[in-house]
């Protein structure tokens, strides 16, 4: 076989899978010299048998081996070559792990929804909204209604529950909010979570990873009703009644009850409770099994009732805690004027 230096730099570059500029660079570095350089023109010529060294050099550079170590592998003792390659493999592995960790942080940041809140406050919020979550057949038929929606948006952590007859919303201000996202906690998981965090000073919730302080939470995939749209369509209240919360709770009894605002009193069935309100030509019926838990979940001695008409949801606001809102659907009592 003719091994004469008959290949121009362009032809040899194509044979070895390199570029002419790379061959010139490797010549200048002394790791791949041409077989012959024409003194008159300066043209470089290569022998075909130099391809093996060129391909090896190409692979080593593709692997990122520094040129000084390339020389060791190409021309040094085999043990030195092996040691250089093993050291470089370890270096590549460390670099890859560092790069992957950095990418994980960036990707996590793109969908980040992390909030730090007080443990007791989160526990209280869960317990406040849970009574509005569906149970029994309604929850079996539509599992998302048996859940608490946990939503981070606009620097607020919102906990929401509804069975379509009741609605509860509690807003928390995280210590360190970040991003936006949501998840659904089944009622049983929410109760366990409330017990778990009640005695913790602070807890970190990662809605993207569905983790609480690094531990996975039991969640449900599904689409929660658009509560924001529902709130946006509520008519402005026509009447407001401020009444003692526990007195109203005690007056409900066990059967359907009618509420009538009077002058500084609220008629509840056959009882008149002191209240801050004006007389209104309005009578609103309630099921105590629905209104009672909403009153139990409220905070403070007083509760504010916002009434529109006998058929529209009634908004209950805690006088001592404006961050908690409950809606209760009234019922129609036969024979009662509307």
TrEMBL record:
Q: Does the UniProt entry include the keyword DNA-binding?
A: yes
Q: Which residues form the HTH merR-type domain?
A: 6-76
The entry assigns this protein to a family as follows:
Belongs to the beta sliding clamp family.
Entry keywords, A to Z: Cytoplasm, DNA replication, DNA-binding, DNA-directed DNA polymerase, Nucleotidyltransferase, Transferase
State the name under which the record lists this protein.
MerR family transcriptional regulator
The record lists the organism as Amycolatopsis rhizosphaerae
Annotated localization: Cytoplasm
Q: Name one GO biological process term.
A: regulation of DNA-templated transcription
Domain of life according to the entry: Bacteria
Q: What is its main location?
A: cytoplasm
Any one Pfam family here would be: MerR_1
Q: PROSITE patterns recorded for this chain?
A: HTH_MERR_1, HTH_MERR_2
Tell me yes or no: is ATP-binding among this UniProt entry's keywords: no
Q: Which InterPro entries match?
A: DNA-bd_dom_put_sf (IPR009061), DNA_clamp_sf (IPR046938), DNA_polIII_beta (IPR001001), DNA_polIII_beta_cen (IPR022637), MerR-type_HTH_dom (IPR000551)
């Amino acid at each position: 076989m003719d091994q004469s230096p008959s290949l121009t730099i362009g032809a040899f570059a194509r044979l070895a899978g390199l570029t002419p500029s790379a061959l010139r660079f490797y010549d200048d570095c002394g790791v791949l010299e041409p077989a012959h350089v024409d003194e008159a023109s300066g043209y470089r010529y290569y022998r075909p048998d130099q391809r093996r060294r060129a391909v090896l050099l190409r692979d080593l550079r593709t692997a990122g081996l520094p040129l000084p170590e390339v020389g060791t592998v190409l021309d040094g003792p085999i043990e030195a070559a092996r040691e250089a390659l093993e050291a470089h493999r370890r270096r590549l592995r460390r670099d890859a792990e560092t790069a992957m960790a950095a990418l994980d942080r960036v990707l996590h940041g793109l969908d980040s929804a992390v909030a730090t809140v007080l443990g007791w406050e989160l526990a209280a919020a869960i317990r406040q909204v849970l009574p509005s979550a569906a149970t029994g057949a309604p929850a079996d038929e539509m599992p998302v209604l048996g859940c608490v929606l946990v939503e981070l948006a606009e620097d607020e952590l919102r906990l929401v529950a509804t069975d379509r007859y009741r609605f509860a919303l509690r807003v928390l201000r995280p210590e360190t909010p970040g991003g936006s996202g949501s998840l659904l906690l089944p009622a049983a998981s929410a109760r366990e979570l409330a017990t778990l965090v009640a005695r913790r000073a602070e807890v970190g919730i990662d809605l993207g990873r569905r983790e609480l302080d690094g531990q996975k939470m039991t969640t449900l995939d599904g689409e929660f009703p658009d509560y924001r749209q529902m709130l946006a369509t509520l008519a402005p209240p026509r009447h407001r009644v401020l009444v003692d919360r526990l007195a109203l709770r005690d007056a409900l009894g066990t059967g359907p009850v009618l509420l009538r605002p009077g002058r500084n009193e609220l008629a509840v069935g056959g009882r008149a409770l002191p209240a801050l309100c004006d007389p209104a030509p309005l009578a609103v019926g309630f099921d105590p099994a629905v209104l009672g838990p909403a009153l139990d979940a409220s905070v403070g001695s007083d509760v504010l009732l916002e009434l529109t008409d006998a058929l529209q949801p009634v908004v209950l606001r805690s006088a001592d805690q404006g961050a908690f809102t409950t809606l209760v659907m009234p019922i129609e009592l036969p024979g009662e004027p509307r």
